[in-house]
Amino acid sequence: MSGLFNPTVAWITFRATMGRRRAFLFAIPAVILIVITVALKISRPPARPWPSHVLGTFGFSVLLPLTALIIGSSVLGAEIDDGSIIHLLATPVRRSSVIITKFLVATGLTIVFAAIPELIAALISGGGYTEPTTSSVIGGPHTFVPGTAVSTSGFAIGLFVGAVVGAVIYNAIFVMVSAATTRAIAVGLLYVLVWETLLANFVSGVRLLSVSHYSLGIANGIAHDASLMAGIAVPTAIIMGAIVTVGALVLAINLLSGFTLKGEPA
Amino acid sequence: MTIELRNVSRWYGNVVAVNDVTMSIGPGVTGLLGPNGAGKSTIMHMISGFLPPSRGELTVTTSSAPKERPTWRDPDIYRDVALVPERDSVYAFLTGSQFVTSTAKLHQLADPAGAAARAIALLDMADAADRKIATYSKGMRQRIKVAAALVHDPEILILDEPFNGMDPRQRLHMMDLLEKLGSEGRTIVFSSHILEEVERLSGTIQVVVAGRLAASGDFRAIRRLMTSRPHVFTVKSADDRTLAGALIGRPAVTAVDLGQNGLQVRTSDYGAFCRDIAVLARDHGIRLR
């Protein structure tokens, strides 16, 4: 990976991404999450499973993908839009190096603006709580299974690792989308709102192709909090996440290798 | 250090931008001349590896890679080839010095700071090098783009409309620089739709009209062909009859027709006629309308 990481490309990408006016947008979802967490912590009794719902469902279906979308589409898409990418591409730097470096910068920034806020919010929340359930054996009596508390550190670490994994996969997808189309934000927003937020939460089959469920699956594998509502198991999440990440990056490299400047038709 | 285009065409859907162009460009300064929309930028983009030909073959040879190689999808060509795009898009948040130095680093030069300082000095931009590019005028942006393109000392330099936005002093400086680079044995190709720029700078021109190569070769020979073909002018003056008598005595004028709406003058030499009529009008005290 070190041969694929170009420090100069990373420096330009970081300056370009953080120097734009919309950089302040990166922090908005994180601020909202922490404010909601603090408000719920103050107003709700601790023995309720709200941290899993707020930090899991809202955090992984809205905060994480939206932050990754804004950042992931900025690191490459903005330069393609304004044409400044030409100064990067008119050098012998490999296209694979450009993509991998921009992907790593975007992932790092998403970790700062989404995964770390998830960790902070989880620590503020005081941990998860599995909901009470009833189980029954056919012909036998119903048995009440009481809810159990999940430790704050285990819950927070689980959410943080899940969010880091989500940051990696989402950014691979959004970097690829911005190499494919100049409407990366619109396409990404449609994907987040329709696929991740709507379909993946209501259609069980879609979860196999949902990044938020990969992230939740891994978070749940560490936190062991059934309320996180992970639709898939850890091994499936790891395998599918790896396939999607590698596939998106290979496609992005191929798209950037075919980058063209359009001349004026006669 | 040559660029070869063999039967190169490029189309976008049903629109043909470049149509069966064959040309060979060697060391020195070559001007790509043509009106807006003629297909110059498309040719420049194909030469610089940012657009594949739809048909035909486009290759470059350099001293480090003497075997002909296509430019499309080969980032290694940028060790010897540099492009100055027409679009005014640079990293405006960097200073001029940071921009050129980062380009030197991307080329993995041994001394990026030294190479950047040399390129910036060559473009007479040292005084503004520590200012953010966002504060530059269009002409200064153009020059810093050229400095970045020259930082790795390329053998082939491609400039798309390089004089756009430059004031006359900057324009002359850039022309002198390109002339010097060409005389050092580099292959310099620039596009322009302004005849005077090409006339001042290049010995060799490629004229592109409607996607086709209309003329190719020595500028003076082509200029002679352009100027010695018959031209017809309509001239209105304060005294058409006297002016007609004076004009018919000039060797460049082949016929004069005195009509209701002024004079119809036929000439075989555009340049000589333009000089003659001004002198004759002044000498005879005739006001041209």
Largest sheet of chain A: 2 strands, antiparallel
Helix/strand/pairing class of chain B, anyone? alpha/beta
Straight-line N-to-C gap of chain A: 44 Å
- End-to-end separation of chain B in angstroms reads 52 Å
Q: Mean pLDDT of chain B, as a whole number?
A: 90
Largest sheet of chain B: 6 strands, mixed
Q: Note poorly predicted spans of chain A.
A: none
What is the N-to-C order of secondary-structure elements of chain B (H for helix, E for strand)? EEEHEEEHHHEHEHEEHEHEEH
| SSE order of chain A | HHHHHEEHHHH
Integer-rounded radius of gyration of chain A: 20 Å
Percent range of helical residues of chain A: 55-70%
Quick one: how many beta strands of chain B?
A: 13
The oligomeric state of the chains shown is: heterodimer
- Mean pLDDT across the residues of chain A is 86
Strand order of the largest sheet of chain A: 1-2
Structural class of chain A: mainly alpha
Identify the overall geometry of chain A. globular
Helix content of chain B: 25-40%
Describe the protein in words.
The complex is a heterodimer of chains A (266) and B (289). In chain A, 69% of the residues lie in helices and 3% in strands. Chain A starts with 6 loop residues before the first helix and ends in a 9-residue tail after the last helix. Chain A is built from nine helices and two strands. Chain A has helices at residues 7-19, 27-43, 50-82, 85-89, 95-125, 152-180, 184-202, 211-223, 234-257; strands at residues 133-136, 142-145. In chain A, helix 1 crosses helix 3 (50-82), helix 2 runs antiparallel to helix 3 (50-82) and helix 3 (50-82) packs antiparallel against helix 7. Chain A has a two-stranded antiparallel sheet. Chain B starts with a strand and ends in a 5-residue tail after the last helix. In chain B, strand 4 and strand 5 (69-70) form a beta hairpin. In chain B, helix 2 crosses helix 3 (112-122) and helix 8 packs across helix 9 (270-284). The mean pLDDT of chain B is 90. The A-B interface holds A 6, 8-9, 11-12, 15-16, 19, 82-84, 86-95, 257-266 and B 10, 12, 15-19, 36-45, 48, 50-52, 73, 75-76, 78-79, 82-83, 85, 87, 89-91, 93-94, 99, 102-103, 105-108, 145, 148-149, 210-211.
